[in-house]
């Protein structure tokens, strides 16, 4: 028997347990989160005898006589201070890392309530945040210390919820003190645990699956294989390319190491792991296709029936060859960008339970309707027989658009008629989840003697891995944005995405543009040098201005603010010796003629407006933005609004959280619905309107790719940006200045948070993040991904440019993705100035961060 003191109570365990599991599973203390269970992320931080320690590296048998405190054990005053300070500073995004941050801060406060900036950074060295860039978390900790030190009253922020004002995030306080419910926090009586047996080889034929020994084990419910699938075994994020097997059937060939071959359900996690080892799978090992070169070869094995070329995109405008031949300066380089891990702090988890005629699914994803579509297909059910309800989402960045665990949880629950939870371990998440596409880009860019751009020609090759996911659209965006946001009109792009037996590429913040912008912007720096002008001047000369025509033919609208972003960083560029610069543009919305609809249902119940949309908040704060749209339009007080969670049986389908679209598309739908509510109010009270139920809609109409039109409208809006990266005399990051044209900042704190977080993600992409593959398998652990820590992050100055006066969504243009696009080329430019080496591969080599 082991005795452990937790939050002042003595508890007893009869066997030694991992402390994190003991806290979460046995004691229901779920503020400690399971981000990795390998001591690398800090989401499980607790205080042991006054020191911040990760619970997942402790065992209960070593804790006798020690005092352990979790966030639940802090005083009400401490919890209230943290809830206020983290919300007031905008430090909470997805929130999954925040309870761990709060515990590290609490340990620091035991030493000092007047911490310096350095002390705060050092206190956070064991905590990773993938969303915020740490800036606002550090501010929150300093503010918390000050309130505690001065014992002053916690201020109240009065707010009317107006657009453009500092509205507290609706989910901030709960997330800050660990009260938010994430997918793995769901517990249902009689719940079983499920997990997949995965392929041992990137490419092998499954000859047989023997589950007898596993199923004979006490506590094992059943082993499910493809033969048990009641509907269609193949799923796919784009329903017209459903090429992803839920389970690889006997006789079929695996496509990557993350492929699931069988699913096991057991009464507890220990039994589950033991049973998985007893599932005997016999394989015929086949030679894998591991590079684009191999995939292209005439005699290459076909990974999918139709061959290894997933998608081919060409774009041509003007006469490129002639323009290049007549140009004064021409540069050509080949660039390589790697696959990278999303590294959201919350590993994938889903819980499903049987209902009368189908299933109920609780998940953490980027669209409950995508899940409903894919899982109902798999189970052979009508969509309305699969009800999907979202929990909080601990980060996504595009990586939670594809099915990972939802379909497996749904299948187990439906076949076994029991509640089942499936959660990936961190390592499994790394092996299974989609990645940012690795690309090889050969690019030629030309200009005249004054530095005016004349032409660009590129070939882009994308490794889309084992399954299509969004490999086609990602490549398409890489191609459509390869010109950069400049005023020239001769472009030729040829892009191809190939299947390989590597991890599938999928949506990742930036959506292909992160890759092509590295080539575009680096080439432009070279041209500036040949002309003899600065990196700022060449961009300022060529920057797209309102009324001019983008290289894709679209006319830049009056709200185009690229020049303003350049001018915002001019002084910093002039005053710093090693300053690298990059511009970017990124579409808001899916565009290119595809259906793109935002919807909002407003229902009045007992004098409150229930704001119902299925827009997934993956950290960006869309619920609060929608609240602001509603309050601005109607004048209703925020206390009279209930923002509901996405649920396919209650909230209308407003599309996936992708393509920086939710603020614009769902935001506009909220505005449209709110205008109707305002009309209905007309002197009445909300209570008078009880029973009111109305759905507003906004549909973005755009032109198809390849349409025969001089000035097609490919996207309803573009955001623009300029980022500046400054190195110190030792070649270390000193400062980043990020100026972003966001149209209109609906919630300025949230916009700053997006910028700071995106910049840090971009710095990691540029300098530290690595993901080598061996035989199709990522050779990394969470702790070796190279994610930047608080102590490595330089000063970040975010500048918001607001120029758009469109009525649509109050002028917002979306900011989620563009924040990460210009960072890596700006870092490259800074190093080029620093040591004269023109680097063409990410992450950059021979820097202070990577030898
Ligand atoms: S869960 Fe403990 S450090 Fe990640
Ligand atoms: S808020 Fe830190 S990981 Fe999301």
Walk me through what this model shows.
It is globular and about 80 Å long. Helix 2 crosses helix 5 (135-150), helix 15 (513-531) packs parallel to helix 22 (823-835) and helix 19 runs parallel beside helix 20 (662-681). The strands form eight sheets. It has a seven-stranded mixed β-sheet, sandwiched between helices. The protein is an alpha+beta fold and 851 residues long. The two termini are 50 Å apart. The structure holds FE2/S2 (inorganic) cluster (2 copies). One FE2/S2 (inorganic) cluster (FES) is lined by residues 20, 34-37, 39-44, 54, 56.
Q: How does the major sheet shape up?
A: 7 strands, mixed
Assign a percent range to the helix content: 25-40%
Q: What's the number of helices?
A: 22
Unreliable stretches (pLDDT < 50, length at least 5) are: none
Rg calculated over all Cα atoms: 26 Å
Secondary-structure-based class equals alpha+beta
Strand content: 15-25%
Strand order of the largest sheet: 8-11-6-18-15-16-17
How many strands?
31
Q: What does the average pLDDT come to? A: 97
**Attached small molecules:** FE2/S2 (inorganic) cluster
N-to-C span: 50 Å
**Shape descriptor:** globular
């Amino acid at each position: 028997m082991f005795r452990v003191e937790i939050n002042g109570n003595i508890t007893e365990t009869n066997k030694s347990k991992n402390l994190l599991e003991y806290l979460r599973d046995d004691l229901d203390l779920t503020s400690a989160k399971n981000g990795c269970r390998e001591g690398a992320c800090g989401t499980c931080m607790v205080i042991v005898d006054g020191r911040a320690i990760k619970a997942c590296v402790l065992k209960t048998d070593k804790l006798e006589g020690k005092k352990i405190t979790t966030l639940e054990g802090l005083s009400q005053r401490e919890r209230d201070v943290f809830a206020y300070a983290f919300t007031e500073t905008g430090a909470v995004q997805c929130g999954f890392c925040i309870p761990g941050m709060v515990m590290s801060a609490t340990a620091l406060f035991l030493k000092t309530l007047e911490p310096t900036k350095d002390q705060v950074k050092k206190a956070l060295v064991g905590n990773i945040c993938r969303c915020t860039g740490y800036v606002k978390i550090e501010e929150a900790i300093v503010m918390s210390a000050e309130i505690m030190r001065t014992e002053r009253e916690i201020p109240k922020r009065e707010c009317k919820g107006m657009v453009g004002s500092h509205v507290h995030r609706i989910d901030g306080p709960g997330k800050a003190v660990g009260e938010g419910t994430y997918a793995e926090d769901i517990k249902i009586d009689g719940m079983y645990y499920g997990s997949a047996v995965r392929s041992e080889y990137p490419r092998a034929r499954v000859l047989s699956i023997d589950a007898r020994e596993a199923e004979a084990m006490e506590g094992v419910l059943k082993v499910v294989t493809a033969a048990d699938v009641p509907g269609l075994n193949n799923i796919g994020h784009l329903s017209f390319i459903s090429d992803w097997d839920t389970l690889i059937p006997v006789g079929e060939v695996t496509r990557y190491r993350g492929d699931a071959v069988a699913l096991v359900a057991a009464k507890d996690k220990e039994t589950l792991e033991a049973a998985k080892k007893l599932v005997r799978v016999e394989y015929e090992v086949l030679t894998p296709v591991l590079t684009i070169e191999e995939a292209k070869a005439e005699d290459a094995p076909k990974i999918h029936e139709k061959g290894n070329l997933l998608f081919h995109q060409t774009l041509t405008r003007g006469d490129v060859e002639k323009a290049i031949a007549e140009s004064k300066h021409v540069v050509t380089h080949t660039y390589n960008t790697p696959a990278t891990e999303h590294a959201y702090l919350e590993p994938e988890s889903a819980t499903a339970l049987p209902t009368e005629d189908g299933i109920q699914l609780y998940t953490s994803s980027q669209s409950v309707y995508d899940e409903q579509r894919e899982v109902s297909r798999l189970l052979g059910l009508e969509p309305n027989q699969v009800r999907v309800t979202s929990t909080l989402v601990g980060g996504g960045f595009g990586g939670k658009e594809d099915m990972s665990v939802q379909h497996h949880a749904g299948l187990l629950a439906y076949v076994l008629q029991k509640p089942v939870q499936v959660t990936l371990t961190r390592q499994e998440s790394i092996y299974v989840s989609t990645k940012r596409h690795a690309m090889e880009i050969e690019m030629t860019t030309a200009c005249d003697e004054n530095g005016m751009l004349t032409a660009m020609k590129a070939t882009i090759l994308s490794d889309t891995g084992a399954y299509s996911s969004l490999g086609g659209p990602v490549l398409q965006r890489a191609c459509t944005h390869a010109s950069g946001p400049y005023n020239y009109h001769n472009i030729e792009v040829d892009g191809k995405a190939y299947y390989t037996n590597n991890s599938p590429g999928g949506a990742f913040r930036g959506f292909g543009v992160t890759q092509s912008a590295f080539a575009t912007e680096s080439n432009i720096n070279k041209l500036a040098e040949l002309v003899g002008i600065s990196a700022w001047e060449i961009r300022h000369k060529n920057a797209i201005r309102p009324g001019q025509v983008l290289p894709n033919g679209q006319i830049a609208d009056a709200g185009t603010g690229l020049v303003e972003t350049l001018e915002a960083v001019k002084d910093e560029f002039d005053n710093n010796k090693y300053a690298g610069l990059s511009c970017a543009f990124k579409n808001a919305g899916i565009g290119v003629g595809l259906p793109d609809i935002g919807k909002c249902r407003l229902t009045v119940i007992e004098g409150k407006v229930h704001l119902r949309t299925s827009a997934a908040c993956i950290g960006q704060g869309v619920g609060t933005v929608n609240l602001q749209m509603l309050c601005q339009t109607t004048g209703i007080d925020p206390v009279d609004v209930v923002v509901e969670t996405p649920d396919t049986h209650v909230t209308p389908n407003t599309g996936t959280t992708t393509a920086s679209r939710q603020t614009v598309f769902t935001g506009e739908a909220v505005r449209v619905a709110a205008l109707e509510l305002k009309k209905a109010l007309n002197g009445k009270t909300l209570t008078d309107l009880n029973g009111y139920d109305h759905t507003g809609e906004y549909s973005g109409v755009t032109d198809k790719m390849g349409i025969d039109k001089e000035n097609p409208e490919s996207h309803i809006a573009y955001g623009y940006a300029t980022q500046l990266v400054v190195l110190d005399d030792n070649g270390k990051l000193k400062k980043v200045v990020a100026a972003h044209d966001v149209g209109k900042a609906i919630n300025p704190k949230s916009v700053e948070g997006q910028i700071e977080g995106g910049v840090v993600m971009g710095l990691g992409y540029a300098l530290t993040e690595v993901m080598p593959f061996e035989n199709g398998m990522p050779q990394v652990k969470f702790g070796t991904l190279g994610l930047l820590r608080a102590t490595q992050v330089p000063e970040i100055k975010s500048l918001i440019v607001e120029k758009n006066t469109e009525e649509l969504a109050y002028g917002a243009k979306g900011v989620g993705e563009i924040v990460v696009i210009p960072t890596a080329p700006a870092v490259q430019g800074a190093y080029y100035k620093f040591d004269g080496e023109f680097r063409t591969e990410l992450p950059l080599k021979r820097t202070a961060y990577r030898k």
